[in-house]
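User: I'm preparing a small set of examples for a lab meeting where we compare how different chains pack in three dimensions. I only have the primary sequence for this one, and I'd like the structure in C-alpha coordinate form so I can line it up with the others. Please keep the answer compact; I'll paste it straight into my notes.
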Amino acid sequence: MFEFYERMVLEIGRCVDYTGRTIVLGEGNANSPKLAFIGEAPGATEERQGRPFVGTAGKNLDQTLEALGCERAEIFITNLVKVRPVRQNIKTGRLSNRPPTRDEVSLFTPFLLEELALVRPMCVVTLGNFALGALTGGKGATIGNMHGRLATTAGEPGVVFDLFPLYHPAAAIYNRKLREVMERDVLKLKTVMEGYV
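Assistant: Understood. Below is the C-alpha coordinate output for the 197-residue chain.
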Protein backbone atom coordinates (compact mmCIF):
# COMPACT_ATOMS: atom_id res chain seq x y z
CA MET A 1 0.00 0.00 0.00
CA PHE A 2 2.88 2.33 0.83
CA GLU A 3 4.34 2.00 -2.69
CA PHE A 4 0.95 2.75 -4.25
CA TYR A 5 0.47 5.88 -2.13
CA GLU A 6 4.03 7.00 -2.81
CA ARG A 7 3.50 6.69 -6.58
CA MET A 8 0.08 8.35 -6.40
CA VAL A 9 1.45 11.32 -4.41
CA LEU A 10 4.24 11.77 -6.99
CA GLU A 11 1.79 11.67 -9.90
CA ILE A 12 -0.65 14.07 -8.24
CA GLY A 13 2.25 16.34 -7.28
CA ARG A 14 3.08 16.76 -10.97
CA CYS A 15 -0.32 18.38 -11.57
CA VAL A 16 0.07 22.16 -11.51
CA ASP A 17 -3.25 22.67 -9.71
CA TYR A 18 -2.14 20.53 -6.75
CA THR A 19 1.41 21.77 -6.21
CA GLY A 20 1.98 22.21 -2.48
CA ARG A 21 -1.52 20.98 -1.59
CA THR A 22 -2.31 18.43 1.12
CA ILE A 23 -3.09 15.00 -0.32
CA VAL A 24 -5.44 13.13 2.01
CA LEU A 25 -4.81 9.39 1.89
CA GLY A 26 -7.11 6.60 3.00
CA GLU A 27 -6.86 5.16 6.49
CA GLY A 28 -8.03 2.24 8.58
CA ASN A 29 -7.95 -1.49 7.91
CA ALA A 30 -6.32 -1.95 4.49
CA ASN A 31 -6.33 -5.75 4.73
CA SER A 32 -9.61 -7.05 3.26
CA PRO A 33 -12.01 -5.29 5.67
CA LYS A 34 -15.72 -5.97 5.61
CA LEU A 35 -16.41 -2.36 4.60
CA ALA A 36 -14.64 0.44 2.76
CA PHE A 37 -16.30 3.86 2.83
CA ILE A 38 -15.64 6.14 -0.14
CA GLY A 39 -16.42 9.85 0.11
CA GLU A 40 -16.30 12.67 -2.42
CA ALA A 41 -13.27 14.73 -1.39
CA PRO A 42 -11.62 16.19 1.70
CA GLY A 43 -12.96 19.39 3.25
CA ALA A 44 -11.10 22.10 5.15
CA THR A 45 -10.73 20.08 8.37
CA GLU A 46 -9.56 17.00 6.49
CA GLU A 47 -7.05 19.10 4.57
CA ARG A 48 -5.74 20.63 7.80
CA GLN A 49 -5.41 17.26 9.58
CA GLY A 50 -4.47 15.17 6.53
CA ARG A 51 -7.12 12.55 7.39
CA PRO A 52 -10.44 11.61 5.75
CA PHE A 53 -13.77 12.32 7.44
CA VAL A 54 -12.64 14.16 10.55
CA GLY A 55 -14.85 17.26 10.16
CA THR A 56 -18.61 17.64 10.68
CA ALA A 57 -19.45 14.97 8.08
CA GLY A 58 -16.94 12.74 9.87
CA LYS A 59 -18.94 13.05 13.10
CA ASN A 60 -22.03 11.87 11.19
CA LEU A 61 -20.00 9.00 9.74
CA ASP A 62 -18.89 8.05 13.27
CA GLN A 63 -22.58 7.80 14.24
CA THR A 64 -23.14 5.52 11.25
CA LEU A 65 -20.24 3.32 12.35
CA GLU A 66 -21.64 3.20 15.87
CA ALA A 67 -25.02 2.07 14.49
CA LEU A 68 -23.20 -0.62 12.50
CA GLY A 69 -21.35 -1.75 15.62
CA CYS A 70 -17.89 -1.16 14.19
CA GLU A 71 -14.99 1.20 14.70
CA ARG A 72 -12.81 3.16 12.29
CA ALA A 73 -9.89 0.78 12.84
CA GLU A 74 -12.00 -2.11 11.47
CA ILE A 75 -12.95 -0.45 8.18
CA PHE A 76 -11.18 1.48 5.44
CA ILE A 77 -12.07 5.12 4.70
CA THR A 78 -10.95 7.15 1.72
CA ASN A 79 -12.17 9.71 -0.82
CA LEU A 80 -12.51 9.65 -4.58
CA VAL A 81 -10.66 12.97 -4.96
CA LYS A 82 -7.65 13.09 -2.65
CA VAL A 83 -7.15 16.89 -2.65
CA ARG A 84 -9.69 19.43 -1.37
CA PRO A 85 -11.52 21.04 -4.32
CA VAL A 86 -11.77 24.77 -3.58
CA ARG A 87 -12.93 28.06 -5.02
CA GLN A 88 -11.59 31.38 -3.90
CA ASN A 89 -13.78 34.35 -3.06
CA ILE A 90 -12.38 37.21 -5.15
CA LYS A 91 -13.28 39.86 -2.58
CA THR A 92 -12.15 38.15 0.63
CA GLY A 93 -9.58 35.68 -0.69
CA ARG A 94 -11.20 32.95 1.45
CA LEU A 95 -11.36 29.41 0.15
CA SER A 96 -14.54 27.37 0.19
CA ASN A 97 -15.36 23.81 -0.85
CA ARG A 98 -16.75 23.12 -4.30
CA PRO A 99 -17.80 19.93 -6.08
CA PRO A 100 -15.06 18.10 -7.97
CA THR A 101 -14.80 18.84 -11.68
CA ARG A 102 -15.05 16.18 -14.39
CA ASP A 103 -11.31 16.47 -14.90
CA GLU A 104 -10.68 15.84 -11.20
CA VAL A 105 -12.99 12.82 -11.20
CA SER A 106 -11.20 11.49 -14.32
CA LEU A 107 -7.78 12.03 -12.75
CA PHE A 108 -8.58 10.39 -9.41
CA THR A 109 -10.90 7.50 -10.41
CA PRO A 110 -8.06 5.19 -11.57
CA PHE A 111 -6.26 5.81 -8.26
CA LEU A 112 -9.42 4.90 -6.34
CA LEU A 113 -9.90 1.70 -8.35
CA GLU A 114 -6.30 0.68 -7.74
CA GLU A 115 -6.63 1.53 -4.04
CA LEU A 116 -9.72 -0.69 -3.74
CA ALA A 117 -7.98 -3.51 -5.63
CA LEU A 118 -5.20 -3.39 -3.02
CA VAL A 119 -7.50 -3.11 0.01
CA ARG A 120 -9.99 -5.74 -1.27
CA PRO A 121 -12.98 -4.86 0.93
CA MET A 122 -15.95 -7.21 1.00
CA CYS A 123 -18.32 -4.30 0.41
CA VAL A 124 -17.68 -0.76 -0.83
CA VAL A 125 -20.00 1.84 0.66
CA THR A 126 -20.16 4.91 -1.53
CA LEU A 127 -21.11 8.15 0.18
CA GLY A 128 -22.92 10.41 -2.26
CA ASN A 129 -23.12 10.76 -6.04
CA PHE A 130 -19.48 11.37 -6.93
CA ALA A 131 -18.10 8.13 -5.48
CA LEU A 132 -21.10 6.19 -6.79
CA GLY A 133 -20.64 7.63 -10.29
CA ALA A 134 -16.92 6.85 -10.29
CA LEU A 135 -17.51 3.21 -9.37
CA THR A 136 -20.40 2.65 -11.76
CA GLY A 137 -18.85 4.52 -14.67
CA GLY A 138 -21.63 7.10 -14.48
CA LYS A 139 -24.25 4.99 -16.29
CA GLY A 140 -27.06 7.20 -14.92
CA ALA A 141 -26.57 5.89 -11.40
CA THR A 142 -27.64 8.41 -8.80
CA ILE A 143 -27.77 8.19 -5.05
CA GLY A 144 -31.48 9.01 -5.19
CA ASN A 145 -32.32 5.83 -7.12
CA MET A 146 -29.66 3.47 -5.68
CA HIS A 147 -29.29 4.33 -1.99
CA GLY A 148 -29.83 1.55 0.51
CA ARG A 149 -29.65 -1.26 -2.07
CA LEU A 150 -26.91 -3.82 -2.54
CA ALA A 151 -25.42 -4.01 -6.03
CA THR A 152 -22.30 -5.46 -7.62
CA THR A 153 -19.72 -3.55 -9.60
CA ALA A 154 -16.31 -4.10 -11.14
CA GLY A 155 -13.17 -2.25 -10.18
CA GLU A 156 -9.75 -3.05 -11.62
CA PRO A 157 -9.80 -5.86 -14.22
CA GLY A 158 -10.83 -9.07 -12.49
CA VAL A 159 -11.91 -7.29 -9.28
CA VAL A 160 -15.63 -7.41 -8.51
CA PHE A 161 -17.10 -6.21 -5.24
CA ASP A 162 -20.39 -5.59 -3.51
CA LEU A 163 -21.52 -1.99 -3.67
CA PHE A 164 -23.83 -0.34 -1.14
CA PRO A 165 -24.61 3.34 -1.88
CA LEU A 166 -25.47 5.69 1.00
CA TYR A 167 -26.19 9.38 1.04
CA HIS A 168 -23.14 11.42 1.99
CA PRO A 169 -23.03 12.05 5.78
CA ALA A 170 -23.11 15.81 5.07
CA ALA A 171 -26.51 15.41 3.38
CA ALA A 172 -28.23 15.22 6.77
CA ILE A 173 -26.60 18.51 7.75
CA TYR A 174 -28.20 20.29 4.80
CA ASN A 175 -31.43 18.30 4.55
CA ARG A 176 -32.89 17.11 7.87
CA LYS A 177 -35.60 15.15 6.03
CA LEU A 178 -32.96 12.70 4.83
CA ARG A 179 -31.99 11.68 8.36
CA GLU A 180 -34.70 8.98 8.64
CA VAL A 181 -33.92 7.63 5.16
CA MET A 182 -30.24 7.47 6.05
CA GLU A 183 -30.97 5.68 9.34
CA ARG A 184 -33.06 3.05 7.50
CA ASP A 185 -30.31 2.59 4.92
CA VAL A 186 -27.72 2.05 7.66
CA LEU A 187 -29.90 -0.68 9.18
CA LYS A 188 -30.03 -2.37 5.75
CA LEU A 189 -26.24 -2.09 5.52
CA LYS A 190 -25.92 -3.68 8.96
CA THR A 191 -27.92 -6.69 7.72
CA VAL A 192 -25.65 -6.95 4.66
CA MET A 193 -22.58 -6.67 6.86
CA GLU A 194 -23.77 -9.45 9.15
CA GLY A 195 -23.81 -11.77 6.14
CA TYR A 196 -20.04 -11.45 5.71
CA VAL A 197 -17.91 -13.96 7.58
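A couple of notes for your slides: The chain is about 40% helix and 15% strand. The CA atoms of residues 13 and 87 lie 19 Å apart.

User: Perfect, thanks.
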